[in-house]
Each structure stands twice: as C-alpha cells, then as structure tokens.
Write a structure and sequence with these properties.
The complex is a heterodimer of chains A (about 525) and B (about 350).
Chain A (H helix, E strand, L loop, with lengths): L19 E10 L2 E11 L4 E5 L6 H9 L6 E6 L2 E3 L4 H6 L2 E4 L11 H5 L7 E2 L3 E2 L1 H14 L16 H14 L4 E5 L7 H16 L3 E5 L3 H7 L2 E6 L2 E7 L5 H9 L19 E9 L4 E8 L3 E5 L6 H8 L6 E6 L2 E3 L4 H6 L2 E4 L3 H5 L6 H5 L18 H14 L16 H15 L3 E5 L7 H16 L3 E5 L3 H7 L2 E6 L2 E7 L5 H8 L6
Parallel strand pairs in A: 3-10, 3-11, 6-9, 9-10, 15-20, 15-21, 18-19, 19-20
Antiparallel strand pairs in A: 1-2, 1-4, 4-5, 7-8, 11-12, 13-14, 13-16, 16-17, 21-22
Chain B lengths: L21 H28 L7 H26 L7 H17 L6 H26 L3 H20 L10 H8 L1 E2 L2 E2 H19 L1 H11 L1 H6 L4 H27 L9 H14 L10 H20 L4 H26 L1
Antiparallel strand pairs in B: 1-2
Helix pairs in contact in B: 1-12, 1-13, 2-7, 2-10, 2-11, 2-12, 3-4, 3-5, 3-10, 3-11, 4-5, 4-10, 6-10, 7-8, 11-12, 11-13, 12-13
The chains are: A alpha/beta (about 525), B mainly alpha (about 350).
Chain lengths: ~525, ~350
C-alpha cells in the first residue's frame, strides 16, 4: 500500500513513440492465421476504437497484448521501445490492462478487495489486512473514476452494471495501467449508463491514459472515440480519425466488398395470416398487464429498455418466469409454467446466451439438433431406443435447408462459428415443428454478415407459417426485421409501431415513456 | 418446416476453421488411445515377465472375476457421473445390499434368493432416487447428499447387524451369484457383462441416455429444450445405487458371508478411478461405459500383474494413483488444446 502511484500523462511530453504500438503482428493457430501482419498504435490520451466482425482477429490481438497468448511473430512497443508480453504478469507490469465484457471482478468480494486484487491489500503486523488503508486507497481510485460515493465495502454483486464496469476500470487503474482495453464494456449497460462510462473514459484519457475500445455498437464509436481502427481477416483495413467516417462508411469498411448485405431489409412481403400466439394480461414482478398477438407470417418485435419488459415477456411466454395471465396457441388456452410445457405447446426459444442456454457444446450437431424432439425418434415409450438413421437423415435435411456449414453432423457443436451454432438452435425447433419462435437477441455478439443471415432465417420461419417474436438490444434490428413492434415502458405496452413507422427514433422515444411519437 | 432459406451466402461465413495439424492429431491419438495402449502394454509386460502364470486363460478369467464387482459398481457410477453427479453413497449402499440379502435369506424372510435380490435392488433404487430428490428438488450438491446418505447407510447396517457378520444359513441359490460358473465363465463376470451391455445400450442408444448426456453437458440448455431435467437425477442416482447394491450382493455371495462393514469401501475410490480413466479414453472428457470397462480392466490387470510379480500392496496403490493421474492429465490436456 506504500507504493507510489504512477501518474500517467506526466512524462508524456518527451515520449519517443506512441504509448503502444503493435507492428507486423502474426498469430498462427493450427490451420488458420488469426493475425496477419496487423499494425496498431495507441497514443496516450486517446480513445481508440478497435472494430471488426467476429473472427476478424480483435480478440486475438487483445489476448496477445494481455499476455494470454504469444504472437507467432511481430513486435509490441511501449513508448517506442520493444517489449515482451509473455504472460499476464508482464502485461500488468507494462501497464496494459484488459476489462472484459463480463468483468474481471469476483462478485462475492467487496469493491475494495476487487480493486486491490492485483496490488494486494496492505498488511498490519505482517498478517492482518489493513482494511483502513485499503478502503482509503480504494476510495481514492473510485474518486478518480467518478464514483466518489461508492462504499468500498459493498459486495460487487450488489452493484449495478455500470458501477461494475467502472469498478473494473478502477481495478485497472490500481495496477497503474496506462493502456486500458475495454472489451465490449457496454453490452449490459443502459443508454444513460453508457454515457456516464464514456464521460469518465474521456476524463481519464485527459489524464493520459490510452483506451482501446472494442464494441459491436457502432453508434457508440462516434460518441467517444478519437480514432477508429478496422480489422478484417486478421489484418488491418485502416485507421481513421473518427470524423473521417460516418456510420454507413464504417459499416462498409467492416464488411468489405459485400456491402449490400449490411443494409438489406427483411420485412414481410405477404400479409400476415391467422393468429398463432395470443397473450392476455401478462402480469408479474415486472410486467403490468401485457397483451400481445402474433400471426403466422409475421415477425413481431418487442422493445423496451433492459429490465422494463421485453426480455421478461419472452421469458414469461416460455415459462421461465412466474406470471399471471392467459396464453393461447392457435386459439387454445395453454398452461405454461415451465419450459417443458412451453415446448409442448409449440413454442421455441432461441436464447440470448447461445452457449449457456442454447447448446450443449460437447454433444454433436445431430444430438443438439434433436434435443427437443427425441420423442419422435424413439422406437416405443418403453425401451425408448433412438432411431439414429432417421435422426441422421432428418437432421441432414434441415441443416441443408439452413445451409449450415460444418465438418459433418457428428462433429461437436463447439467447432461451429456463432452463426452456424445459431442455425443448429433454430434447426432444433424446425425439427420439433414449433409454431411460435421466441428470438431473444438472436444476434447478440455476432458480426454484420451473420446478423443478416439470422434476420433472413427469422423471416423464412415466418414465411413458412410460424409466428416470430423478436427482441433485441440493438434498435436498428427492429427496423430491419420486424413487421410490427410493441414498445414497453416500465412493464406495460406504451405503443405499437408498424411498417414505416418503425424507426430507431420512435422506438427509443416510446421506450423512454413518451407517448407521442 | 421451412422449404427454403433465402439467405445470401457469404463466402467467409465460417465453417469449422481449424484444421488439425500433425502435432494436434498426435496429441489427439495419444489421449484417445493412451489408456488402451497402456492396457495392452501392461498385459504385454506382465506376459513377458511371467508367461506361465500371467498369460494363461485361467488367469484371464481370474482377472475378470476379480474386477467384476468393481466393474459393476463403476458402471453404475458412470451413469451418475454422466450427469455430473458424484455418488459417494455407493460404498454404504454396497455394504447394505450384501448384508440385507444375507440377513433376509438366513432368517427366511424371503424364501427365494431371486426375490431377496430383487427386493434389495428395489430398495437400492428407492434410496438412490431419494438421493436424487434431495439433489434435484432440494438443490444440494450430490457430493454432499450422497456423502451424508452413505454415512447413514453405514450406520444403519452396523446398527441392524449389531456388528455381527452373518456366517450361516445363506442358501446355495444365493451363493451361486458369486461362486457359480457358466461354462468357463464365473457368474460375477456374467453379471458384469450383462450390466455393461444394458447400461451401454441405455446410455448410448436410448432417449433417456441422450437426455442424460445433454443434462450433464448443459443442464440449462436441456431444460430450455423441454427436457424435465430434475427427474433424471433420480434415475441416475437410482441406477448407481442399484449397481452398488448388486455389487455388494455378489461380494457376499462370493465370500458366503454377510459382512456389515467395509464391503463397499474397498470399491469406492477404485470405481471413481476407473470411471475417470474411462473418461479419458476414446471420447476424452466424456464418461462412457466402454471407457469405464477399459478403466476397470486396466486397474484389474495392474493389480493382478503386480500381485503375481510379488510386488507389495503399497506399490499397487501408488501405481494405480500414478496411472489415474496420467490418464486424467492426458484427457484434460486434450480438452485444453481444443479450446
């Protein structure tokens, strides 16, 4: 606790080179080159966006900087002198710190324990923790990140998402980080919290800290970043001043040659048919009497701020959340208290957390695909032997329809990329012949291409007679894929938009509770 | 179902990107077939060193006979482990099973050995299912529940028996289970074969087995796919308990006595060792019947071979521990490389 604090920025005047520079970075994995002569530089005091689609090499670059992996070739320089980053301890010593999407915090520990995890808590009489100085030191750091009122003794799990994000930044500062890499820090934040985070980032940047900011949300890039670097296929596409690009031209740089796909719309071409799903008066700890209908052939969006109803509607319909109210499928009232009953009623969930909730990564594509319909492949209700031949041929058929790219249906699902993995989840419900598809942020953390592919799948599900309910954290998606959007505010439907009325602006205004659009 | 999916193909939308290099393949082969190779190597070495004692058909059946009880218990345990459930009650369960069958037969509670065996198996299923209920509906980890229940079972047998071993009055019809032979094949081996085949088909070929692997892999995904996840803990721990009880009864039949203590304890650690060795074989990271069988054979061959060589018992323990470490290390190494 007695170590003198490094004051970043003080000595920046006579620096021989940029704060951080990566030259000609190459990382080879067996059979694939994840980084291909990548160049990147970060100045002290700037916020630098590092963008690219999934698989473009961003995470590989970050891992290399964090000392988690070793580069095959290439150099890393700090202040113009070449350094070795062979392990996380070395990265830390060099002042490079990564703040991950889901935080590098231990939720059960206090703010102080987390923040001072790297430098260690001070001691009294050799063994006892000197809590007073630990809390004093933590308070100083919290002060610096703009959370002066946060009690260092609070358990991290009791903090809000943005507070956790900021505490993670404080932890980086505690280890005297000068390069802070933020890996999708805003995923779980609400708009106001994002703004708070950004203003603190700007303030710290003025102190001389360099931020590398990784995100899939392009509008944020223009809010906070000074420069933008785009990666594709492991290499550098270009680095620009933020002012040199706008949203559209940035998307073009991200996707490369095939630009059209990033702007294509997937809304309905035919009028919707009969009502498949109807919910009346859904009421629970969040929802306050939600009614909704979804017809065959339509994609119905449900939008709200996080925690204000959209995700809760999906969870309620699928029996994951206790609510009162009525749910009818094709006009028949169904009792849905758990996912098992939901599946039996013809519902299908494509969950937000693909790996945690959508797939069993150790099982094969075939086994994952038939997980909800094993009953239809068993010989009889007693012995319950599985008819593998039939299973194989039907899975093959559905996966061909979905144009799944895999090394074979017996391959473990873990070998698939995000988009292909999502197809396996959707294929599962095709095999089950589900009638209502609940797509809960199906494009979370996938790249522009895969997003378009998933929108296309949502549309084709509807075209083939299913009702599709869609939620997302990115409002642009509603515009591109939904025929109708219900906007919730504080657990109640405050507006319904259709056709050309569906705009980011109108959804945003309604979800903030402004009735007039 | 959708008849067409009109989504533009993007050429760089990724299939499996990673092709395996030679070194990866080598590691893969080593961890898949390492245990089998070491089994073959052990057999070869012992055969060379003691050709006239080790490499005989009599010793072959001898080894099978020695491992059959461990095998039956380990196979049942494998079913529980597939779902990620540690069953520590199997030691107490085995002791209880063997003792109760002997007691009831000696006292004439059940006239027919077959009935007594079936009643014990049914009781074991119930106790195992009880474990499952506490685990699934009480939300307690299987490790703790089965540790507690195992302790209770051990206490119950000691109390019921007053620590007295049942030495007489056990009918021959029961002893056949442990001492009989079909042709050259000892009865315990027959039981082992039946249990292995039944559980293999159960885990690999049936809907229930498929669901168990899914739950073991990711319970939340299984639940959201409409599988009634909770009841599978009852089935898995029930099967594990029944196999333990069957193993305990074969021990009793083999020795001709109903011991109220210490029967199952011998098998507890070896059963886990066999299952974990098995989980590093052929399909690394996955518990499966064939793997457990190989694990059991490896343990059997090593114990038998070392005994024949006249190696002290403490070495046998040490060697078994080293092999378990190597096997588990090989498997986890492969899994790490894959990520």
């Amino acid at each position: 606790m007695t170590t003198t604090q490094n004051e970043p920025g003080r000595e920046s005047a006579a620096r021989p080179g940029p704060l951080l520079r990566v030259r000609e970075a190459v990382k080879d994995y067996p059979g694939t080159r994840a980084l291909d002569h990548m160049d990147f530089s970060l100045e002290a005091g700037e916020v630098h966006a590092l963008l690219g689609e999934n698989g473009a090499g961003k995470s590989t670059l970050i891992k290399a900087l964090a000392g988690a992996i070793a580069l095959t070739s290439g150099t890393v320089e700090i202040d113009g002198s070449k350094v070795e980053v062979r392990n996380p301890q070395q990265a830390q010593a060099l002042g490079i710190s990564v703040v991950h999407q889901h935080g590098n915090l231990v939720p059960e520990l206090s703010v102080a324990e987390n923040v001072l995890m790297v430098e260690g808590l001070g001691r009294r009489i050799g063994v006892l923790v000197d809590w007073r100085s630990a809390h004093r030191r933590t308070r100083a750091l919290l002060d610096r990140i703009g959370l002066p009122d946060l009690d260092p003794r609070r358990e991290v799990s009791s903090l809000g998402a943005h507070e956790q994000a900021m505490v993670a930044v404080a932890k980086a500062l505690a280890s005297n980080a000068r390069v802070i890499i933020l890996d999708e820090p805003t995923t779980s934040l609400q708009p106001a919290e994002v703004d708070t985070l950004f203003s603190q980032m700007r303030r710290l940047a003025e102190e001389g800290i360099g931020f590398v900011f990784v995100t899939h949300r392009l509008n944020e890039v223009f809010k906070v970043c000074d420069r933008i670097t785009v990666m594709r296929d492991g290499g550098l596409v270009g680095t620009w001043q933020a002012g040199e690009l706008d949203h559209d031209s940035l998307v073009d740089q991200l996707v490369g040659a095939e630009k059209a796909i990033a702007h294509e719309a997937f809304t309905a071409t035919a009028p919707p048919r009969e009502v498949v799903l109807e919910a009346r008066g859904l009421r629970g700890d969040v929802l306050r009497g939600v009614d909704l209908q979804a017809r065959a052939g339509e994609v119905v969006g449900i939008a709200s701020l996080p925690g204000e109803g959209a995700g809760e509607v999906v969870e309620s319909l699928y029996g994951m959340r206790r609510v009162h109210g009525e749910v009818l499928i094709e006009g028949t009232p169904r009792r849905i208290r758990n996912p098992q009953q939901a599946v039996a009623a013809g519902m299908a969930l494509v969950p937000r957390d693909r790996l945690g909730q959508g797939l069993v990564s150790d099982l094969s594509i075939r086994e994952n695909a038939t997980l909800a319909s094993t009953k239809s492949y068993r010989t009889d209700p007693v012995l319950r032997l599985m008819r593998r031949g039939r299973e194989r041929s039907e899975v093959a058929e559905v996966m061909a329809q979905l144009s799944l790219k895999s090394g074979g249906l017996e391959k473990e699902v873990r070998t698939l990329s995000g988009g292909n993995a999502q197809k396996v989840v959707i294929g599962r419900w095709l095999l089950r012949q589900a009638k209502v598809y609940l797509l809960d942020s199906p494009t979370a953390a996938v790249d522009v291409h895969t997003k378009a592919e998933i929108y296309g799948l949502a549309r084709s599900l509807a075209d083939n007679g299913a009702a599709v309910v869609f939620t997302s954290t990115e409002l642009e998606e509603f515009v591109r894929v939904c025929d109708r959007v219900l906007v919730l505010h504080d657990g109640a439907v405050v507006g319904e938009l259709a056709g050309d009325d569906i705009t980011v602006n109108s959804i945003m205004r309604l979800s903030f509770g402004r009735k007039s659009v | 179902m959708s008849s067409s999916t009109a989504v533009a193909e993007s050429p760089r939308a990724t299939g499996p990107r990673r092709e395996t290099s030679t070194s990866d393949k080598l590691i893969d082969v080593v961890s898949r077939y390492g245990t089998i190779a070491s089994l073959v190597a052990c057999v070869a070495i012992f055969s060379l060193l003691k050709p006239d004692v080790f490499a005989t058909s009599q010793n072959f059946f001898n080894i099978l006979n020695q491992v059959s009880i461990l095998g039956i218990i380990a196979l049942g345990l494998t079913v529980a482990l597939v779902q990620g459930l540690f069953d520590l009650s199997l030691a107490g369960m085995a002791t209880l099973g063997g003792y109760l069958a002997c007691k009831w037969l000696a006292e004439g509670t059940f006239g027919s050995p077959a009935v007594a065996v079936l009643v014990v198996l049914a009781l074991a299923l119930v106790i195992g299912a009880f474990n499952g209920v506490v685990v699934a509906y009480g939300g307690v980890s299987a490790f703790i529940v089965t540790l507690a229940v195992g302790s209770i079972l051990t206490g119950v047998v000691l109390g019921v028996s007053d620590s007295q071993t049942i030495l007489s009055g056990i009918p021959d019809g029961f002893l056949i289970m442990g001492q009989g032979e079909i042709g050259p094949i000892p009865m315990p081996v027959v039981f082992l074969a039946i249990v292995a085949v039944v559980l293999y088909v159960f885990l690999e070929q049936t809907q229930l087995g498929r669901h168990m692997y899914a739950i073991g892999g990711n319970a939340e995904t299984a639940r959201l796919s409409g599988i009634p996840v909770k009841r599978y803990a009852l089935i898995a721990l029930g099967i594990s308990a029944a196999c333990a009880a069957l193993g305990g009864m074969i021990v009793a039949a083999n020795l001709g006595v109903g011991r109220p203590q210490g029967v199952g304890d011998t098998y507890l650690l070896d059963a886990f060792a066999a299952a974990f060795i098995g989980a590093s074989t052929l399909r690394p990271g996955r518990f499966h019947i064939l793997g457990t069988v190989i694990g059991v054979l490896l343990i059997g061959v090593i114990n038998n071979g070392l005994s024949i060589m006249g190696v002290e018992t403490f070495w046998q323990y040490a060697v078994r521990g080293i092999i378990l470490l190597l096997a588990v290390f090989a498997a986890s190494f492969l899994v790490m490389r894959r990520r």
